[in-house]
Amino acid sequence: MSVLNGKKILLGVSGGIAAYKTASLVRLFIKAGAHIQVIMTPASKDFVTPLTLSTLSKNPVHSTFFNQDDEDAVWNNHVELGLWADLMLIAPATANTLSKMATGNCDNLLIATYLSAKCPVYFAPAMDLDMYKHPSTLSSFAALKQFGNVMIPAESGELASGLSGEGRMAEPENIIAFLEADLESKLPLKGKKILITAGPTYEAIDPVRFIGNHSSGKMGFDIANEAAKLGAQVILVAGPTHFKVKNSLVEVVNVVSAQEMYDACHSCYNQVDVAIAAAAVADYRPKVVASQKIKKAADEFTIELEKTKDILASLGVIKKDQFLIGFALETENEIENAKLKIQKKNLDLIVLNSLQDEGAGFKKETNKVTFIDKDFKIEPMELKSKESVAVDILNKVISHFSKL
Length: 404
Ligand code: CTP
What we know:
Layout: E1 8-13, H1 22-31, E2 35-40, H2 50-57, H3 78-84, E3 87-93, H4 95-103, H5 109-116, E4 121-125, H6 129-133, H7 135-146, E5 150-151, E6 155-158, E7 164-168, H8 172-185, E8 193-198, E9 203-206, E10 209-211, H9 218-229, E11 233-238, E12 250-254, H10 258-268, E13 274-277, E14 284-286, E15 305-307, H11 311-317, E16 323-330, H12 334-344, E17 349-354, E18 366-373, E19 378-385, H13 386-403
């Protein structure tokens, strides 16, 4: 999945011949799953029509501060547009537009939006080779880079003037590849490896029966997906569940029993930076597993159980630098029990679920959690989707690494 998937992108088009290539650029953004709004300078409309870009972007194109043709003139709010975006790209960026961006010469909607945008800004220059090398253009590049904007360098080749050299706007495919590589390199969990456990475990009684629980695995899978979106490499050790992962950064290790989950976690624990135990591991298993199906006979039947290994506690014992997160599912004395688990299992953070909370727990789309850290700082969260809870948990991981 492209890192551009779901991103809100503002494309600023200025008036150069390369503007015709923005039609392909918009298509590629849409194909990558991005939401896109286009702002055109007045001059750019001589090179590509607003209708083309609005059709391809599936959004109205903005060009003036208000729509003159509209009976009830609608104000194009540049501040709102600037705040909407996750990323702004000016392509093509002409010498004129670059100079206005560098000096704050705000005489059109594109520049007003640029000045209002709080998101990362990229620009892809396009001009003739001598213009590209002119000291004035170079000083615009330098000023913009100093503002933190990122330049997507022009490419070499035949130019509209008939001359050949540097100045052609990067090809749309190359712009997309540049953005993807740049965004990926800046993801907050890039380079981090995370072990996540998910789902129930099944403890065999005989070849056809087992002891299990109602965990669907959704919470763990949501954490894995969100972690991968943030750039982490994930090892997801999952008990039996129907969930699938699409992100290539997530390696799924399928297990059935608590012992298999224990072995899978220990075989990779020393390579990971973070471990998150979201699985509902069986605490007990049958002491003896019958090799054949147990036949119905006596009126009463007892299965002797023995304790499984506590995976999370065992990871706490051998913890080095790993940031260790556990879950606690409680029905009474929630905070006190969760605090005891932090100490007993040597955790850095616990995510407490109370079954007393409406909307929390097994087989639900939502969860209501309370974070408790190892210093016993308590942070109750609102009822949210499990995806949003996953994001909150990963924000805790990000803030842990930002303090190191
Ligand atoms: N856990 C584990 N291995 C086990 C049991 C639990 O890794 N054999 C992990 C769970 O994944 C969870 C945390 O320990 O992150 C707490 O699980 P929970 O069921 O709330 O607590 P238990 O330690 O099993 O204690 P109890 O059932 O007595 O509350």
